[in-house]
């Protein structure tokens, strides 16, 4: 028996919007720790890891660790029917081949339930090593969205270089080249407008902009995004989900032949 | 140009 009640239902709506373009179907893992997911895109270039910790739910009942396979496009369709202020409850009975999403309006005058078919999905989890990254950048998520969008009108790939002077995003294409440099700036009114660069070692890696643009679908979840990079490792693009968890995207770099 | 790496070449199956 699984019953998860999330007062801020809009978070789950935003999570689905953030991952459904990258991954079509996935197993959600439910345990006493929380509601989580790890899945790769179909070409195995990117990986998304979601965590919604049990403490973040108003009610969290998960009698045993289970995986429930869902088509994310269909799940997103159903969650779109929930109002932004609605409370969302996810329910699944043991051995059932369906999951129920219940939406309650804040004043309790409208209650909907949507039953969705589950899927059998073969998936294997990858071990993500706990690494101290050589460089990490915290910046406004809107700024990162803007940079990825702007650069993808010029080129297909971006080189992200972190030095003590700042972080440089470089692309080039048929029409020319573009460089955007962001410097550390922590002297701002609001912490979410700050850009903070931590660098143990300078790092420079190249990535496909198509994927980074897809990751920015998570922008509504968090004002701040963190980019973590080390030489010859996938970049981690992390959006925190309040204090209840995160969506992390891992993207394999482009490698010189 | 540079080749796209695969995530499975960095992270191994559990």
Describe the structure.
The complex is a heterodimer of chains A (257) and B (14). Chain A has 257 residues and is mainly beta. Helix content of chain A is 14%, strand content 46%. Chain A has helices spanning 10-19, 72-79, 141-152, 209-215; strands at residues 2-6, 25-30, 34-40, 46-53, 59-62, 66-71, 87-92, 98-104, 111-117, 126-127, 135-140, 157-163, 166-173, 176-182, 196-199, 203-208, 224-229, 235-241, 245-251, 254-255. Chain A has a nine-stranded antiparallel beta sheet with strand order 6-2-3-4-19-18-17-11-15. Chain A has a five-stranded antiparallel beta sheet with strand order 5-1-7-8-9, covered by helices on one side. In chain A, strand 2 (25-30) and strand 3 form a beta hairpin. In chain A, helix 1 runs antiparallel to helix 2 (72-79) and helix 3 runs antiparallel to helix 4 (209-215). Chain A is globular, with a radius of gyration of 20 Å. The termini of chain A are far apart. The model of chain A has no long low-confidence stretch (mean pLDDT 96). In chain B, 0% of the residues lie in helices and 29% in strands. Chains A and B meet through strand 10 and strand 20 of A and strand 1 and strand 2 of B. Strand 10 of chain A pairs antiparallel with strand 2 of chain B.
Question: What's this model, at a glance?
Answer:
Chain A is mainly beta and 257 residues long. Chain A is 14% helix and 46% strand.
Summarize the largest interface: chains and residue counts. Answer: A-B, 24 and 14 residues
- Oligomeric status: heterodimer
Annotation, overall tally of beta strands of chain A: 20
3D shape of chain B: rod-shaped
Average pLDDT of chain A works out at 96
Helix content range of chain A: 10-25%
How many helices of chain A does DSSP assign?
Answer: 4
Strand content of chain B: 25-35%
**Head-to-tail CA distance between termini of chain A:** 51 Å
Q: What composes the largest sheet of chain A?
A: 9 strands, antiparallel
Radius of gyration of chain A: 20 Å
> Mind describing the biggest β-sheet of chain B?
none
Q: Return the structural class of chain B.
A: mainly beta
């Amino acid at each position: 028996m699984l019953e998860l009640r999330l007062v801020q239902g809009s978070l789950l709506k935003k999570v689905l919007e953030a991952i459904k373009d990258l991954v079509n179907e996935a197993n959600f893992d439910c345990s006493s720790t929380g509601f989580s997911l790890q899945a790769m895109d179909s070409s195995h270039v990117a990986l998304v890891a979601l965590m919604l910790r049990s403490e973040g739910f108003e009610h969290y009942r998960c009698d045993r660790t289970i995986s429930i396979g869902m088509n994310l496009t269909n799940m997103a369709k159903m969650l779109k029917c929930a109002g932004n202020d609605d409370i969302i409850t996810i329910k699944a009975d043991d051995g059932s081949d369906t999951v129920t999403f219940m939406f309650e309006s804040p004043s309790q005058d409208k209650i909907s339930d949507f039953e969705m078919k589950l899927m059998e999905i073969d998936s294997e989890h990858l071990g993500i090593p706990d690494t101290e990254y050589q460089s990490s950048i915290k910046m406004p998520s809107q700024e990162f969205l803007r940079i990825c969008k702007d650069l993808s009108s010029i080129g297909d790939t971006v080189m992200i270089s972190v030095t003590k002077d700042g972080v440089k995003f470089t692309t080039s294409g048929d029409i020319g080249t573009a460089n955007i440099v962001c410097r550390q700036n922590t002297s701002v009114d609001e912490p979410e407008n700050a850009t903070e660069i931590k660098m143990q070692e300078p790092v420079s890696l190249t990535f496909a902009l198509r994927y980074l643009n897809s990751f920015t679908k998570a922008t509504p979840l968090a004002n701040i995004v963190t980019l973590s990079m080390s030489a010859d490792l996938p970049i981690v693009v992390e959006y925190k989900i309040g204090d209840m968890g995160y969506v992390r995207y891992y993207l394999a770099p482009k490698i010189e032949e | 140009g540079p080749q796209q790496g695969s995530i499975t070449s960095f992270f191994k199956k559990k």
